[in-house]
Amino acid sequence: MGHRALVAYERTDGQYTLHYSHWGAANLKLKHRISAESPFGGDDTNSKWAKQLLAELADGLEADAVDGYLADEDRPSTVVEPKPRATGLTLDEIIADHLDYLHHEAFYVVSPTFEVTAYRTLWFGLQYDSETIDNGETVGNGALATVRWHDGEPVGDGHLKGQFRALKDVVGDMVDKGVFTPSTARQYLKQKLGEWVGERQELRIPGGESPSKTASVDRL
Q1: Which of 2, 164, 79, 114 is nearest to 156 (CA)?
Q2: Model pTM?
Q3: Same-domain pairing of 139 and 54
Q4: Stretch 166-195: mean pLDDT, rounded?
Q5: More exposed terminus of the chain, fewer Cβ within 10 Å: N or C?
Q6: Helix pair angle (157-176, 182-197), 10° resolution
Q7: Residues 6+ apart with CB under 8 A from 20
Q8: What is the C-alpha separation between 17 and 85, in angstroms, rounded?
Q9: Sheet harboring 16-21: ordered strands across?
Q10: Residue 164, SS3?
Q11: How many domains is the chain partitioned into structurally?
């Protein structure tokens, strides 16, 4: 099944190239595996082809022109696919139109100086938590949150995921009882995430939405 992630590399014009990693979400490990020496997260620390390719992509190379860099059969494997899924995107476009919050477990943003920001994806869909909701959008329907790190480990990751799973279970029950509509349920999820993440971490929601304080459980 994998632990799927998307990785956005910032270009010189401020836009991004978007890449896929099949195992990169596990323990948010790509935060420390992507570097100037190994831009796509492989074990080869002398990857001249990878450095050259990323430099060309940063200057605007299109995805369909990448194949020539990947023709060498002896090229070492990488954790991130070198060929981008898309190029010339803004971060807002990626998180709203490309990121699947159910199937992509993590998202990384890589700066030109290889500062890597790791986000955990949190899907707002409730069809697995509610008996009255049959389906939910997966692309663009969720939030991104950074987590607390200590000694190189994402110590806040498991806690955040566990909290959010429990929250969705409760919110799904509230939808079934008529306390929340699907819309107010989504607002409540955003509100609680805003409270949890606070000022120490970063919370991103597609469309530039801010956590709302209008949804509540006062009717319980």
Answers
A1: 164
A2: 0.90
A3: no
A4: 94
A5: N
A6: 160
A7: 4, 5, 6, 7, 80, 81, 85
A8: 8
A9: 86-89, 16-21, 5-10, 106-110, 116-123, 142-145, 203-204
A10: helix
A11: 2
> Which one of 120, 150, 185 terminates a domain?
120
Provide the token pair at 87.
Answer: 């190029």
Dist. CA 107–CA 191, nearest whole Å? 21
132 and 212 in a single domain? The answer is yes
Each residue's pLDDT tens digit, 70-91: 876 567 789 999 999 999 999 9
Provide DSSP, 29-64: THHHH--SSSTT--S-S--HHHHHHHHHHHTT--GG
Domain-terminating residue out of 99, 120, 141: 120
Range of the domain at 45: 1-120
For the chain, what is the mean pLDDT? Answer: 89
Residues 116 and 171 in one domain: no
Where do we find the tokens 């632990």? 3
SS3 state of residue 159 = helix
